[in-house]
Design goal:
single chain, 8-stranded mixed sheet, 13% strand, 9 helices, globular, alpha/beta
């Protein structure tokens, strides 16, 4: 099985290709789907990861055999900038490999400042990289409650700003949206900071019924109004699209419109 693979089904919305460097994570997000996907207990998944066996060897083997001309997402399982056993060395080495072979990548992380230790590599990709952060709460107590091992929202936004200031494309993923008011505040703050190029807006899906009482159309309309007014790139995720199908523009529902190539 290839370690650089084409996501299937609903996962394809996020990237044409993906690669998972580690298979566990220390961020301990309440809503994380990975333990269920991997059929592991949370106590077995929410631990400091070790690199997958021969992952660097296998990545290089596939990069030698095939030229990847569309975005590879790092990663769907775990976060390459969580507190890994190898202190992120395998994550760095994998980024170096993608750089060496000219493969475009996107990284989505809640790891905060740990991401910045590879900023020197990011800068060498030119337009062939995008760095994103999942933003859920502006309130740091709520963030700690839901994502106890992840970086604070303040730190995540600082990282986005730092990377954006280096001329690197940034994106923010608003999924899950647990409290729409918090998400709106985060959008307002990142617009004020001018730290995000692309906004990916989703919703909360099937988590303890919390999504049932939320006005998703109203939330999506407010996001569209704010972001269009700021002339930002927008992607409305498939889970949210049915609520504003009559209002969205074609480029706002095209999953591949803003991928890096």
């Amino acid at each position: 099985m290839s370690v650089i693979y084409e996501p299937k089904g609903a996962a394809r919305e996020y990237s044409p290709y993906a690669c998972n460097i580690y298979l566990s994570c220390t961020h301990r997000c309440k809503y994380c789907y990975a333990p269920h996907t991997l059929q592991r207990r949370e106590s077995e998944y929410f631990i400091a990861p070790t690199p997958r066996k021969d992952i660097l060897k296998n990545i290089e083997k596939e990069l030698v055999c095939k030229k990847f001309d569309k975005q590879i997402m790092l990663s769907f399982i775990g976060d390459i900038y969580c507190e890994s056993i190898d202190n992120g060395q395998t994550a760095r080495n994998s980024v170096e490999l993608f750089l060496r072979y000219g493969a475009p990548i996107a990284i989505l992380t809640k790891g905060g400042n740990r991401c910045l230790r590879d900023l020197d590599l990011f800068k060498q990709f030119g337009s062939r990289i995008a760095i994103g952060a999942t933003l859920t709460f502006l309130d740091e107590q709520k963030s700690k409650e839901w994502e106890s091992g992840a970086a604070t929202p303040t730190e995540r936004m600082y990282v986005l700003k730092s990377i954006h200031n280096e001329g690197i494309k940034t994106f923010a993923s608003f999924e899950p949206v647990i409290d729409p008011n918090e998400s709106i505040k985060l959008i307002e703050q990142t617009l004020k900071d001018n730290s995000v190029d692309l906004y990916k807006i989703g919703k909360l899906n099937n988590y303890r019924g919390l999504d049932k009482g939320i006005d998703w159309r109203g939330f999506a309309m407010e996001c569209l109004s704010m972001l269009r007014g700021a002339n930002k790139q927008i992607y409305i995720k498939r889970s949210l699209q049915p609520f504003v199908a009559d209002l969205t523009r074609s480029e706002e529902i095209d999953a591949d419109k803003y991928i890096v190539v």
